[in-house]
Amino acid sequence: MAFKPNYNFQKAERARAKAQKKQEKLKRKTDARGDEPNGDGAAADTSPAGTATDADTTPAAGTDTDTQTPPDDA
After folding, report:
1. Could you tell me the pTM of the whole model?
2. pLDDT digits (tens, 9 = 90+) for 49-61
3. Residues 21-55: tens digit of each pLDDT
4. Torsional class of 36: left (φ above 0), alpha (ψ -120 to 50), beta (otherwise)
């Protein structure tokens, strides 16, 4: 009898292997840097107090930072 492929299972196995590989890579990376994870999966904040972070420098939601330029008349 011929082999009947199970495409959904094969796809799920590839996705699982990819996620596991990604986690292992992240773990090796954090171990190499010496960061300690803080429990929620993210690395602990080791920046000195008083330095600007991305959250401090990004504009508030709904603010327009792009200035409109007038169209070029040819």
Report:
1. 0.41
2. 666 666 566 666 6
3. 999 999 999 998 886 656 665 555 555 666 666 65
4. beta
Residue type (1 letter), 65: T
- HSE-CB for 57 with a 13 A CA cutoff: 5
Is residue 43 helix, strand or coil?
A: strand
Q: Are 15 and 23 in contact (CB under 8 A)?
A: no
CA distances from 3 to 6, 11, 14 (A): 9, 17, 19
Query: Which residues contact residue 68 at a Cβ distance below 8 angstroms, ignoring those fewer than 6 apart?
Result: none
Q: Give the separation between CA 66 and CA 40, rounded to whole angstroms.
A: 35
